[in-house]
Amino acid sequence: MARKLPKREVVIVGFGWTGAIMAEQLTAEGLDVLALERGVWRNTSTDYAVTNAQDEVRYRFRHDLFEQLSRETMTFRNSSDQTALPMRMLGSFLPGTNVGGSGVHWNGITWRFLPSDFVARSHNEERYGPLPEDMTIQDWGVSYEELEPHYTTFEELCGISGKAGNLNGRLQQGGNPFEGPRSKEYPNPPMDMVLAPKLFAEAASGLGYKPFPFPSANMSRAYTNPLGVSLAPCTYCGFCEKFACGNYSKASAPTTILPVLMRRQNFELQTQAMVLRVLKAADGKSVTGVEYITPEGEIIEQPADMVILSTYINHNVHLLMVSGIGQIYDPRSQQGLVGKNYAYQITSGVTVFYDEETHINPFIGAGALGMVIDEFNGDNFDHSGLGFIGGGFIGQTQTNGRPVESLAVPDGTPKFGAGWKKAMRENYGHSVGIGTHGAVMSYRGNYLDLDPTYKDAYGRPLMRMTFDFTENELRMSDYLTDRAVEIAEAMGGREMTVSRRKGPYSIVPYQTTHNTGGHIMGASPADSVTNKYLQHWQMPNLFLTGAGAFPQNPGYNPTGTVAALAYHSAAAIRRSYLRAPGQPMVQA
Amino acid sequence: MRYLSLAQSLTRSSRRIRIAGLVALSACLFAAATHPALAQGTNDWSELQRGLYLSRVGDCAACHTADPEKPMAGKYALDTPFGTIWTANLTPDEETGLGEWSADDFWRAMNEGIRRDGAHLYPAFPYTHFTLISRADSDAIYAYLQSLEPISQDVMEPDFPFPLNIRFVLNGWNLINFEDRSFTPDPERSAAWNRGYYIAEGLGHCSMCHSPKNFTGAVKDGDAAYSGGMAEGWLAPALRPGSGGPGLSDWSKDDLMAFLRHGRNSRTAAFGPMAEVIDKSTRHLTDSDLDALATYILDLPESGEAPADSEAIDTDDPAMQTGALVYATQCSACHGPDGEGIPGQFARLKGSSLTQSSDPTTVVRLVLEGVRSVPTEKYPTPHAMPAFDWKLNDAEVAAVATYVRNAFGNSAPAVTADAVAEIREAQ
Lengths: 588, 427
Ligand SMILES: Cc1cc2nc3c(=O)[nH]c(=O)nc-3n(C[C@H](O)[C@H](O)[C@H](O)COP(=O)(O)OP(=O)(O)OC[C@H]3O[C@@H](n4cnc5c(N)ncnc54)[C@H](O)[C@@H]3O)c2cc1C
Description:
Chain B: It is found in: Cell membrane. The complex is a heterodimer of chains A (about 600) and B (about 425). With about 600 residues, chain A is an alpha/beta fold. In chain A, the strands form 5 sheets. In chain A, strands 1, 2, 3, 11, 12, 13, 14 and 22 form an 8-stranded mixed β-sheet that branches. Chain A has a 6-stranded antiparallel β-sheet with strand order 8-16-17-18-15-21, with helices on one face. A 4-stranded mixed β-sheet of chain A has the order 5-4-20-19, with helices on one face. With about 425 residues, chain B is mainly α. Chain B is about 40% helix and about 5% strand. In chain B, the strands form 3 sheets. Chain B has a two-stranded antiparallel sheet. A two-stranded antiparallel sheet of chain B has the order 4-5. In chain B, helix 9 packs across helix 13 and helix 11 packs across helix 13. The structure holds flavin-adenine dinucleotide (FAD). Flavin-adenine dinucleotide binds next to helix 1, strand 12 and helix 12 of chain A.
């Protein structure tokens, strides 16, 4: 029997980026908020102190900040005709645990999606005609214009360093000319560029493109955000993505929100609370709370008026499935919506090698330090005759020169031994990587459901991921890679290696932690799990934040939009939901 | 488990993390209404608020709230050179607190250091300062304390050796060190200065930490006053220029007010015992009281003794060279290559009086142990300096301490590895 605790007004499950945003917004409204986080508390300054944070083995290879798979994981297969096997080691994506979630060890590239991304189906159909039958992309039910103020809020919270390309419809020199109109310039100027992004930008400009600085959550100068929390200038230490910043130079929930939120009387955080399921009312028309387990193994029932799931997409979808909330998607019958439209991102890279006199100094780096072009993202270019839709950005980020992870050597180098060592010595500090980062559309055959065989330590069936890259994505990625090769050629190196992305998709090498879909948002309960306010269609006191809401995955890093959607949802809760609690904010 | 203080909430072992402020006044009033021994004025809202305010000016909670769940219930172990004293329970509990005390009893304790039963209080309780305060202020504090929820908590006698364990001996101590004073404003001085004097010398008891003490543990006055002292093993810096260091000679009133209000200013951040003083006391001061306090402190006379002359150590000195290397690799990310820091976030070392103080204990302890700044309304981020004791050996700590004391235009005596070893030992 679970021990039942007193009811709370709001229970937030998962305390990463979106959990903290929702908690901040709803406590500001005066609500009594309890956040439940499976991980532990960490002190930014001391736990991630600059004296000990630069430990590549501990963080990158022993996964100190990432979720642990010993008690809970998922199974994976490429297609429905295969048998899925448990993922026993993280690889392709690296979600976090502990207070702050993945936001603690993210890079901080903070985009807005293109206005046309939010109407991907209607826009592409209108321009290019009918889409392939098994491509299940949808419009989002929310527009760029509706999200614009919330993008701004997040950028100001984080102190994003960048250069606007479109201010209220007027194009700006030096920014992204393709972005949707923004109401404000970025709160901080771009970061200082080092040689590698400069070489990239020069070559790209020479080809007629318009390179601009990555919008970055690494601080280009000291900054105090609207909550009054201060961030320090980035020191370009090169231990950023996959690492935490003890210098308060990278925006994360702990560095931008928690100093203020933790002081609020109406907020409480319970750590080491692993939520196992969401509890439904007998009539199935609302949720009544959640059930969690403590490290001692005690099961606690936490009743709530309102539940917000902010556990990252994989866990949000899993929680819905094991709680029996909504019908699980079945690709054969096309019935069910939970787990539908799982998508990912497709990446490739080119490395340019220079001679010894070109010093790249790769150890001067930051998660989002670099230059990028957006000519080939979304529908910024004419896709007629190309055989695919979607796109991605091509950019050069100088993130690190870490001794284990970041040792680029030219093609044909032996994999170990004296030959490898020699090549490593000669090339360390003399190579520049260019990356492409592409969209993945959603398809009938890419989805999440429950595994029939494997269970986690709590006895719940594991979630099963069925995913592969399809023709559209591989063609698109090849097209982006060809453009990257052209830029690389113009960069004047000695030689280059090209790493194209080929199918089938593998969960072993790291690609991105940009998983999307599974509890998608939309305009109608017939084809989505939540409305545009992230409110569950059938259980209006349940909200789901995170990239699980994306109907498909555009060609950008997701968190700017993930956060904007959370602020958009919180604003609607504050404005209208609280007037009529338990009622849907959009009529079906 | 619920945690009520920020410090505790930030420990990794805590799971239920909630931060509450001081006991809500409404709760106090409820307690007041149900308590039988109501003295006059004790259910007057504004009198209670005044009492709460004055108790903050006096930083009573620093010593009398050992456990945030038991406000003012005492039993905080106060280490003195003579032994440990446990602080009194100030809640109106009849058996173990001040439940039986009258306003007169309380006034006698504040003014003369004498307990209700006639015994002498040990001067760790700053009656030597509180003697200055007015009867009206004493009564307001009394009224506030009587309105608290009574908490039963027995407090032990100090573990002092003979003859100090005999409170009668304090007669002798008082004869040498105590003068029953009352406050008479100095008509030559501004109203602000006079108010500042009343706060600093009375309830604020600033010199308890910021002045050196004589062999009997009493605060030295005259030329020695405010020339720096020790608090819990930290150097409480000199507040006036002289032998103890440059003091606050180049601080503006805004600097000092920002420091006392927000725990930080463009030069530095409070840490250690002063962080607690700011959190529990000075940040609550009214604007005019804060202004008065700063006026008085910045007007302290220069001490007769000139600052010990110290030429900056040459950059070729081997310690300076090692120190520069340690600084570049370990310190410069936050404090900046030129020791400028980041205003409001990371302390400036260039020109810092603390860095250059004649006694290097604090600089060395900062490097060894690290410190946490106090989060306040204006600066909610709990910036902290990490500990380096596990990473740097005595010679390296000495070198980097010597370096920061003599780089960026600073000058102060070198720090030896032996001195570091001693401080490390004492931790
Ligand atoms: C290495 C890396 C680099 C990245 N770089 C970028 C980038 O440059 N730009 C970008 O836009 N995005 C980036 N991301 C993605 C970004 O981190 C995520 O989009 C963002 O953190 C998602 O926020 P969230 O609130 O949905 O989830 P999270 O921030 O991951 O928070 C989820 C929280 O829920 C908790 N939780 C999960 N299950 C349970 C449960 N059952 N009970 C209780 N708690 C639970 C987790 O422990 C975690 O704390 C990166 C991610 C990684 C890993």
